[in-house]
User: Which sequence fits this backbone?
């Protein structure tokens, strides 16, 4: 099954993609993570876009994504999180693969900003926390693997407002292009997962 998870930054699409990838036994591919983990050579250029909240150029993004999708573990499907972000990317994706379902996780802009500002992530295992609503037991330390928690450079109010603006302007038109299914993202994590799985079951 080839799935796209869409939604404004902070909507929980990464969290849900992680859970559902385990559930369905297919990899979770976050284009943000791919870019943040790119080679030293590409990082300087990539960071110049990411840290201020802009999208990296489509060609560069597509190159990185194509490499990832060509790996063996994507043969039986994948969950794509963070791509496509505009219509050009959506059309390019159609040229390289076919998508079965598009899930949109919906939250308000106000909630998105609050979630991002308080978000911290484990640098080692990737576990996510919110210092306001879901803090780690010890400040700055991951409950699961005891590694240090880090804050993304673009999880600040200014970059978030830019990311949200781009999302409304460039990413949302894709939802019509795909005929996506909308899920309420302002519910408990478990309930959002339940709603997504129910949708996939009905549709499969
Ligand atoms: P994310 O982790 O999905 O919030 O992405 C973080 C940042 O990576 C975005 O603000 C963009 O700068 C960049 N990025 C991620 N996915 C894409 C994409 N599909 N196209 C262009 N830039 C992207």
Assistant:
């Amino acid at each position: 099954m080839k799935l796209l998870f869409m939604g404004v930054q902070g909507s929980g699409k990464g969290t849900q993609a992680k859970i559902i990838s385990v559930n369905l036994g297919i990899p979770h591919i976050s284009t943000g993570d791919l870019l943040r983990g790119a080679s030293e050579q590409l990082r300087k250029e990539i960071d110049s876009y990411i840290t201020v909240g802009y999208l990296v150029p489509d060609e560069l993004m597509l190159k990185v994504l194509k490499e990832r999708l060509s790996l063996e573990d994507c043969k039986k499907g994948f969950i794509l999180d963070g791509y496509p972000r505009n219509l050009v990317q959506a059309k390019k994706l159609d040229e390289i693969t076919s998508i079965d379902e598009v899930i949109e996780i919906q939250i308000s802009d106000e909630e998105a900003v609050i979630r991002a500002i308080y978000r911290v992530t484990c640098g080692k295992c990737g576990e996510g926390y919110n210092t306001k609503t879901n803090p780690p037991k010890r400040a700055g330390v991951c409950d699961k693997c005891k590694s240090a928690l880090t804050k993304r450079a673009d999880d600040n109010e200014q970059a978030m407002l830019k990311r949200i603006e781009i999302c409304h302007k460039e990413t949302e038109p894709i939802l019509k292009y795909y005929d996506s299914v909308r899920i309420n993202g302002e519910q408990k994590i478990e309930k959002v997962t339940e709603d997504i799985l129910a949708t996939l079951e009905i549709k499969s």
